[in-house]
Structure formats: C-alpha cells, structure tokens
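Researcher: Go.
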Amino acid sequence: MSLLDSENGKRRLLGIEIPGIEHYNIGRDPAFRIRLRKLEGGLILSYALKPGNNVHELETRLGANYPVDAPLTRVVSRLELSPHQFPGQVLCMWRQTSKRNTHKWDPSRFTAIFAVQATWRWLACYELWMSSGQWPIPDAGV
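Model: Structure:
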C-alpha cells in the first residue's frame, strides 16, 4: 500500500499537504515554488531555498509510509561534505532516537511544509558552518 493508494494517505494529501504547499507557493518567485511529482507510491517535492548567499536546489521525498516515516530531503546542487549529512547529500534533520522532542519527526504535528522550513534552517546552519567551521546549533542527539 502506498501513500497515494490508502484512504488515510489521500485524505492527508488532499486535506493538509496539498493546500499547505499551495499556500506556501502564493506570491513566491517561480524559481522558489514547490513542484510536485509522483514517485513509487509517494511524492517528491522539488524546490529551491536561499537561506543566505547561495541558492540550493532540493528534493524532499514523501515516501509510501509518510507521514509515519519522516520525509527524506537531499540537496541536488553541490554541497561540501559537512556535519549532519548522509551519503548522497541527504540531510540529517530527524533523529528518532533523540532525547529532545524538538528534533524528532512527529507525524501528528508536522507537515511537508514544516520539513521545507527545517531544510531552510539546516541550510542556514550549513552556510554558517562554511564560514566559521562550527555547526551553530546542538546535535539532535544531545
């Protein structure tokens, strides 16, 4: 069963996620709007963010088990190898074993737009790290 096949998945997409994405896109420069496409039972959100000096191209995957499973975000444009980054330029934003509730994905409270906002924050930290050599916020597992 996939996100797009289940009744709960369809309700979540049509009632929460798609309207949230449409609202996010209102008045935004076309280069920074979220675009959607289907992917093997889920969706991919493609978008660009500019938290500081650089524009970053991104993809956030809402897999078949979304929202139970956290979205997976990767940077499509080139990044330097940095802290809080998995192979393939996948961002480490959610720690299910974290002791801090603020770093756990909570499917009852968070949406795809929250994931986009968390990505913006991660990229802002990345740009600060590039200039200072120190990650500006504590690790999720702390």
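Model: The chain has a mean pLDDT of 88.
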